[in-house]
Amino acid sequence: MTVQKEAEDAGQNLWFGENLMIIRVPASAGSDGISIVECRMPRGGSTPLHVELSGDDIIHVLEGAMRFRVDGEHFSAHSGQTVVSPKGLPHVFRVEPGEGSICLIVTQGGEFERMIREMSLPTSAGGQHGAARATEAGESFFDGSAPTPIQVVGAPLL
Fold first, then answer.
1. Where are the domains of the chain?
2. What is the pTM assigned to this prediction?
3. 13-156, what's its fold?
4. Measuring CA to CA, how many Å separate 2 from each of 5, 30, 31?
């Protein structure tokens, strides 16, 4: 067994829209470019319908419940369940009513992590004022106007 020492840029807290993103394992930590990002989303939070262009999107629900649509199929996932959205298939998710949700998003190649880092603000960027600026910054992803490795193809899940 090998032990990975914590990478220098792990644990960074970022506001991506209304979501708190915590880089748990950066792509730079290993040779295969796997990233693990913890995402804390408010009740009712949703992504737009989107397609991963660079690899599969693996989402493991730690707390709460989330509703998904992957390639037209609707289903829910709760704490302890994992959803895999294969590269190239449209998918969207929404946090179910309750207190919000916490999930781990696992991707390969580093593109998702880079997008989060580029389109987010550090949580230290001014408290509530910083969160409001981060919401504005993240909106370019949610409205599909930002160039990203993720193609926005539709509206959020209602």
1. 13-156
2. 0.82
3. Jelly Rolls (2.60.120)
4. 10, 12, 14
